[in-house]
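Render this sequence as a predicted structure.
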Amino acid sequence: MVGKTSLMNQYVNRKFSNQYKATIGADFLTKEVQFEDRLFTLQIWDTAGQERFQSLGVAFYRGADCCVLVYDVNVMKSFENLNNWREEFLIQASPSDPENFPFVVLGNKIDVDGGNSRVVSEKKAKAWCASKGNIPYFETSAKEGFNVDDAFQCIAKNALKNEPEEEIYLPDTIDVAGGGRQQRSTGCEC
């Protein structure tokens, strides 16, 4: 549980709860965002991170405009799984230009234990992102709301940059696939 659902709910509803259950398959929320004098409806998909539910989410990857990979800075295994999540997303979504498909990485739960239980350094995470084509990286706290808006602003910007001008209507819907598992909506996972 790296906090994908918590990040989505903090961004869309400005709420945090410790009571979330494991996502089964996929869920999504929408939020209207203003970008370059246009109004868009951001469709954020939250896909299952737990292995037993992962296969239920892959159908939502295809058509995503951006993929968000989320890990818990306090759990090394969640960071080590980033590459697997990224590769599986590219296989399942099969974007037309996989080398340039936009990803964003979020290192979540930086608030836990005042940062004392952290096992993945910011430097290590940024080095991984740099090695994968300079993926944008944000450290977040869904609980405290820290850096959540900035992260999703970057996600929306990356989702929109590959949209052909002729496909843009008002309002637009952008799909962003989630980390862990991602889809054609902005989703978060890992």
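Summary. Confidence is low (pLDDT under 50) at residues 52-57, 166-174, 179-190. Residues 68 and 104 are 5 Å apart (CA to CA).
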